[in-house]
Amino acid sequence: MKACDDGLLNDPPFHFRRLVDLAIALGNQRKSKEALAVYERAIELSDQFGDRLSLAHLYAGLAKAQHDSGDVEAAIMNNQKSLHLYEELGLLDQVACALDNAAALYVEYGNLTRARESLSRAVKFAEEAKRDGTLASIRASQAEVTGKTDPAAGIEEAQSALKFARKVSQIHAEIRMLVLIGELRMPANGAAARRSFQEARQLAEERAPHLLRLIFDRWSRAAEATGDSDEALRLARRALETVRV
After folding, report:
1. 100-135 residue pLDDT tens
2. Nearest residue to 116 via CA among 154, 167, 172
3. Chosen domain end from 92, 123, 152
4. Looking at the domain assignment, is residue 154 inside a domain?
5. DSSP for 49-70, written as a single string
6. Which of 33, 105, 173, 199 could share a disulfide with 165, CB 3.0–4.6 Å?
7. pLDDT value at position 245?
8. CB-count exposure of residue 8 (10 Å: 0-12, 13-18, 19+)
9. Region at 4 (left for phi over 0; alpha for psi -120 to 50; beta for the rest)
């Protein structure tokens, strides 16, 4: 990388690949600001190659880095760019995933109507592509959106999405639904909510340890919302412990 930056090595394709690898690595390490700068350099360099698929992936990665850094508006804009490129390339599964990502951004931006519209479109593309794993993620997202305004209906949708995720072995969607059910049940039935969170934790320990922080963090917030500050503090500490491990 340094040789390319200093002009000692004139190999644009090699430089481009290294920039992409570095941006992804920085994003995975949650170094969002550093990742943003590298993604932008890679996008500038991509103009030399006319590789629209790589450009679509770059815009998707840039959107994720912007979201992680708190710039939701910019993330929406660049996710939309990746979506348009995937549509032009006829990549149905990637279109469905981009629409699913767009829905999450719209939820954070406070526009539930646009989120629902994005997810309705995403379902059609995922079904056409025959990608059950993607469809499981989208159904989980739909349950999360419903739960924002109608907890009872959200629990019902989450249970259905959970059943489908288990059927197609989509672990990430399964954990998301167990956590959502725990959150929505916590105000009325703390014992049932804790069982759901515990099941999510156990599954993550076995199959997806990188999700443990998310589970403990949301479990902590759910406990705090019901006034159980001691439990919330204990769970917040568990979330921090997963980062140090």
Report:
1. 999 999 999 999 999 999 999 999 999 999 999 999
2. 154
3. 92
4. no
5. TT-HHHHHHHHHHHHHHHHHTT
6. 173
7. 52
8. exposed
9. alpha
Q: Find out whether 220 and 235 touch, Cβ atoms under 8 Å.
A: yes
Where among 32, 64, 92 does a domain terminate? 92
d(CA 108, CA 227): 24
Tokens of 65: 């880095």
Burial of 61 by CB count in 10 Å (0-12 exposed, 13-18 middle, 19+ buried)? Answer: buried
Residue 123 lies in a domain: no
Q: Strands (DSSP E) along the chain, which ranges?
A: none
Q: Examine the pLDDT at 4 and tell me if it is beyond 50.
A: no
Q: What is the rounded distance in angstroms from the CA atom of residue 218 to the CA atom of residue 237?
A: 12
- How many folded domains does the chain comprise? 2
* Residue 139 within a domain: no
Give dist(CA 102, CA 41) in Å, integer.
Answer: 24
CB proximity list for 125: less than 8 A, separation 6 or greater: 92, 93, 95, 96, 99
What domain range includes position 203? Answer: 163-245
* DSSP structure class, residue 8: S
pTM of the model: 0.88
Instruction: Indicate whether 125 belongs to any domain.
Output: no
Q: Of the ranges 8-17, 27-36, 65-74, 171-180, which one carries the lowest mean pLDDT score?
A: 8-17
